[in-house]
Amino acid sequence: MGQTLREIFKLFSRKNLDSGETVAPVILWPGPRCNPGRKSGSLPVRQAGRSNGRPGRGVGPLVLGLAGMVFLSTGFFSCKPAEKKIKIALAMPLTGDIASLGQGLKRAVTLAIEEANKNHLTPQPLELVVFDDRSDPREAVSVANRIASDRHVVAVIGHFNSGCSIPASRVYAQAGLAMLTPASSNPELTLQQLSPQWVYPKSIFRANTTDNVQGAFGADFVSSTLKLNRVAIIHDKSAYGQGVAEEFKKQFELNKGVVTAFEGLQVQDRDFRSLLTRVKATQPQALYFGGMFSEGGILVRQLRDIGFKGPFVTCEANYDPAFLKVAGEAAEGAYVTFLGSPPELLPTAQEFIVRYRERYPTDELKSYDAYGYETGNIIIDAIKTVGTDRAKIIEHLRGIKFTGVLGTTSFDEKGDTLNKAITLFQVKKGAFVHL
Amino acid sequence: MSIFNTLIEQLINGLTLGAIYALVALGYTMVYGILLMINFAHSEIFMMGAFVGCAVLTLCGALPAPLAMGLAVVGAMIVCGLAALGVEKLAYAPLRKASRLAPLISAIGVSIVLQNGFFLWRDDFLGFPNVIPERHFYFGPLHFSLIQLIILFSSLILMLGLWLFVNHTRFGQAIRACSQDREAAGLMGIPVNAMISLTFFIGASLGAAGGILYSLYYGSIKYNMGFVPGIKAFTAAVLGGIGNIPGAMVGGLILGMAESLGAAFLPQASWKDVFAFGILILVLVIRPSGLLGERTAEKV
Asked: Is the CB of A328 less than 8 angstroms away from the CB of B219?
């Protein structure tokens, strides 16, 4: 509730660009904002509804309500003694189709920051400021602008979708703010920093492997292990889904395979039977899907429903319990590639899993949470070593050699992690089994 | 042969989809017929139907599948019908005398409130209990799955029931009278408010049944699942002539067919919506009142 109020308050407030602080709007009433002795009922409310000379019927209560809301928020947040905090921003999809993954990452990063604060790893306590990009590129850019203009933010963890990360990354780079993504895998995200037109600091980093590694891995698997040479490809037209599908196609054609169809689907659509019927008519031996579990689960279900029996191969965004839940029996036998190694299989991550379960007993561990925890710790390590200067943090990340739950993370000249493992799973009896 | 087979399969896909659209479109069209407002909260009633159905099916997991299914459909129809009554009383009835825009905006508000209410409860995908066994039927080149037959059959029964109710009962007659002229109907002793409530109840319960069939077909439910089918069903209602009950059925079937044929033969399957909405625009340009809508002549 406090968070919501604060958001509402921010909407109504002007940005004071000098200090980076938000200041209260002084439109509703004058007078002291921080007067604990005064009850909200006795506020000297200026008669806003009537100031235009007309009887303001119905406006008065509204203004009073708004006034009350602003009062509450300012009352809560500006009466505290000014405590200097180091802010780390987290920008994730917290609502929308893949909210569950964003929420999981938020929990993991929160855990990392709580632990750092408990152990006093940094000179001042760390604060995580959380933003919701709703998986929407436009929203991501607006969130990025809000983050970049807050002087107290020293680094950003995010975004989730490549389609959000790529446009937002420019905003961060312009502001000289380090951005570390725990999940976006489109190669373009970090590649853009090497182009001659890139005049900003090289501030974009990524803790996970990229689609070209994953797509090529999937293609090699289909052509050499499954020994199939006709594949239909479906993607979700997002920077991520289409990206990985194109990498798959490139490698599969290099392997002398035939791509019988390369089709996009509409995210949020639920009816893929027509698309699948059309794809089936091209007589593929297997189907590759590049996209999120929200579509993947339904896709494989309808694929089996129209009577296609060949293997279904897909990418890491489908390594999620929701994929199994949605697809039901139809998921049986599906192959899923995963970026890096899942925490359950990493000896270094066992302690993290235990702590996560302790802290969040009712929530399940999502597939990217280990990445979230890792990125949180990488940023904390940077702050611990070089302090809160944005440029110094970027410089530190460039040369970092960090050992954590995922093993050792260091970045190449693009900003991609050198930790490039891919794992393959198959769904057996309703669970992902490591092959 | 292969193209022919694909065509037949696509038509069956379209027919199934269209039947669901038609079922949901009835809710939009009936409310529009009687109140001249578009009930944008209907797509959330659809979503609510799926959730209630899911809850009942989960609770009745031990019962035989047809019985559990029946309970789920009836339960969801009643619960959603009552919810729609509540929404009508709280959000629309007080605005009955306001301008036509006010209840429309109120409906959008209700839709957002309901969606976020369910979001707070479950923000993730929920698997819909898979009570219908996977079975396929082949009639020559025709290939139906059991679930498709069930959807077609049950929506047909519901629509037939509605048709009988509206045309052959006193209540149906009263509803038709209200939609023709609310004030005159009131003067003739018809309890107009009760008839409006009845319309909301019926429309919502058909929408809820549509929600269950839809989630049986797609296997998962989510708080924002109502939006896309809601828009499509609304489009179907407009296509058939909003306010016209057979129009909504025809519009739904045509929209479903248009989508799946579009997906079959356009260069990109994802252009199917363009095709479906293109047909809508074409119809509205040529025949602004929709396919079966009446042309209301203005007397000069």
From this structure: yes
